[in-house]
Amino acid sequence: MNFTRWSARLPRTQRRNAARADRGARRPKPAATAGGGSVPAARGEHADPSGRGEPPAAAPSDAVPPDAVPTLDGLSVHDLLGQVPALVAVVYGPEHRIAYLNDTYVELFGSRAPGTPARQGLPELTELGLLPLMDQVLRSGKPRTVKSRQVPAGGPATTPGPRQEGSAPGPGRSRHGYYTFTCSPIEMAAPRVLAPAQPADERVGEGTVDGSPVDGTPVDGSIREAVLRKGVMPEALATEAVATATATGTVTEPVRGVLVFGADVTDQVESAERLRAGERLQREAAVTLQRSLLPQELEQPDDLRVAATYQPGGTDAAVGGDWYDVITLGAGRTALVIGDVMGRGVRAAAVMGQLRTAVRAYARLDLPPHEVLQLLDGLAAEIDPHQIATCVYAVHDPNENRLVYASAGHLPILVRDPDGTVRRASEPTGPPLGTGGWLHTTGSVPLGPGACAVLYTDGLVERRDKDIYDGVAALERVFAGATGSPQVMCDRLIRALGITAEHDDDVAVLVLQHPARTGHDAELFHNAALELLGGVEAAPRARAFASGVLASWRFPMELRDLGVLAASELVANSLQHGTPPMRLRLRRTDRRLIIEVTDGDEHLPRRRRAEPVDEAGRGISIVATIASSWGSRRTPGGGKAVWCEFALPTG
Fold first, then answer.
1. Is the dihedral of CA 491, 492, 495, 498 positive or negative?
2. Tally of helices (H runs) and strands (E runs) in the chain
3. Where is there biased composition of kind Low complexity (predicted)?
4. Which of 2, 166, 254, 269 is most buried by a 10 A CB count?
């Protein structure tokens, strides 16, 4: 359209033309040539912007002129937010009145009447706990985020609260969903209004085209329509803003509001939940495997009271390879084992099960503790060359009242004497199992009547912020004052050292007591021994001694005869195949009669089938037939011990 012919009709045309001329005079003019002509200077003659005599950098060949770059000025807020696949709600004012809801929000929660306070019009925000967060954002001007809020199936969309005019319910979700909501502060622009003192003809004449300013701002009554058309604010707010601006003749302040953006994170949350469920199932399988590999019921020796506790790590910690065992060796002796396999999970539990089985097999050989660990060391390297384990193997002998042990890199046994003094059985200690190339040695510590001991894994005393031996010292203090049965002592140690269900490591504790018996209980435990000097009179003396002792213990006649026969055969075998010194030991407990013969020869007897024409070789077969069990072992000082047991009749 040509505006030139309208200039004569417009008032103050001269002033407008003068203003245009003044603006043209202030525009920069191109540099003139040396000759004063209007021809532009050559490229090399342009002024050096750097002042260093360097030519200006050439523009890249693929550079786009600035005028050709698209701008965002023409984007519509409705079109932009309406296409976002997320929940978008815009509210304004302290009551968070509804200004805008995008299509995704309306599809999920239903449409809402504009201008309605969020507490009444958007009850889903209340159920999701977002209103207090929106208050904080409005006050502080800083965005806030809440993660993974659940929107139930059929959700709040089915019950949006009191219906407002123009609202409609949404279909809701067909299944549970999760959204991460971010509340950001925004400012919505109010309309710019000219001062009322300026005449209308001046407003029309200056910077207007057909009654509208060139910057697109309407005048008079068209302000409200333009604001609503642009979607800057709802009708009620626009009317109020226009009225305020018209009355004061000033530009209104921006309206503060909150943009609520909800990103659908259902897939991420469900994936994380499936991952946690898988980890939980794997942990439960490892715990079940480990518990099945641990003893379901501890063997209870005649002379000791024993209890053990195993507690797996918390839900965030994979199950480890802690284990324990109690093995009766015969002749009143008991082996006590505790160990810890490096690593966590099913693999550690499987290795633990193999080591525990091997320990029981090696224990049946009645080997010294250091030899058992030596065999375990080689086996651990064969099971997994990259896996190591710590272990303590100890044997209690009631005849010696001592605890003989060997340690493979494990924490020291704690022994409490009857007077309450706690001592560490810390020597000797070798490297962990699986390292190879080390000769383990055996140590011993007294464990008489009235004493007790505790074997444990590092989970009981190790803390991330403390030295492990500080934890051992704390265990010593707690153990010194712990009383009660072994099971009660286990529980007290666990509680006193702060072991809870959320502990980050699994824990195994084994407590044993050697009770001091008095009164009637003392009458049930007796020992009797006879030194055998050899010669033809040794066997008759042994039979007479056994008969007298068994009679004094008031055993039934049948058991007395079987005991005398077994003692006679063991002594005869020792006299024939052994060397001095020789000893016959009789021992009774509340459950069994034990007959043992020791000599100086290390050759262990074995049961064999004797031919009808053989005159010897039937002694051990006779003992194995009449006794409940029998066995033999080498003694620490050299020599051997051959023993048999008879179960006492009940009642």
1. negative
2. 18, 25
3. 55-70, 152-162
4. 269
Look at residue 343 and tell me if it is in a domain.
yes
Residue 286 has a pLDDT of 72
pLDDT tier at 81, thresholds 50, 70, 90 = confident
Flag whether 241 is in a domain: no
Q: What would the two tokens of residue 551 be?
A: 């009679």
User: In angstroms, rounded to a whole number, what is the distance separating the alpha carbons of residues 348 and 322?
Assistant: 9
Q: Which residue bears the tokens 């004449």?
A: 205
* Same-domain pairing of 315 and 267: no
Domain containing 93 — which CATH number? 3.30.450.20
Is pLDDT above 60 for 245? no
- Amino acid present at 137: V
- 343 shares its domain with 284: no
How many domains in the chain? 3
500 in the same domain as 370: yes
Q: Mark which of 514, 535, 564 sits at the end of a domain.
A: 514
Check: CB of residue 194 under 8 Å from CB of residue 202.
Answer: no
Whether the pLDDT of residue 193 is over 70: the answer is no
Tokens 């004052």 found at: 481
Backbone φ and ψ of 139, nearest 5° = -75, -45
Both 434 and 377 in a single domain? Answer: yes
449 and 562, same domain (yes or no):
no
Same domain, 457 and 428: yes
- Using pLDDT thresholds of 50, 70 and 90, give the confidence band for residue 173: low
Residue 151 backbone phi and psi in degrees, to 5: -110, 110
- Please report which confidence band the pLDDT of residue 339 belongs to, taking 50, 70 and 90 as the band edges: very high
Q: What is the CB neighbour count within 10 angstroms for residue 212?
A: 15
Cα–Cα–Cα angle for 487, 493, 497, nearest 5°?
155
Residue 35 pLDDT? 42
| 173 neighbors 87 (Cβ within 8 angstroms) | no
The answer to whether residues 277 and 365 belong to one domain is no
Return the closest-CA partner of residue 567 out of 628, 623, 630.
Answer: 623
Query: How many residues does this entry show for the chain?
Result: 651
Residue type, 232: V
What distances in angstroms separate CA 374 from CA 143, 198, 442, 637, one per listed residue?
65, 106, 11, 19
Which of residues 293, 311, 340 is at a domain's end?
293
Query: Taking residues 421-425, what's their average pLDDT?
Result: 92
Find the domain containing 491 and state its range: 294-514
The reply to whether 388 and 532 lie within a common domain is no
pLDDT digits 0-9 by tens, 531-541: 998 777 888 99
Backbone angles phi, psi at 242, to 5 degrees: -65, -40
Q: Regarding beta strands 592-599 and 451-456, do their DSSP bridges make them parallel or antiparallel, or are they unpaired?
A: unpaired
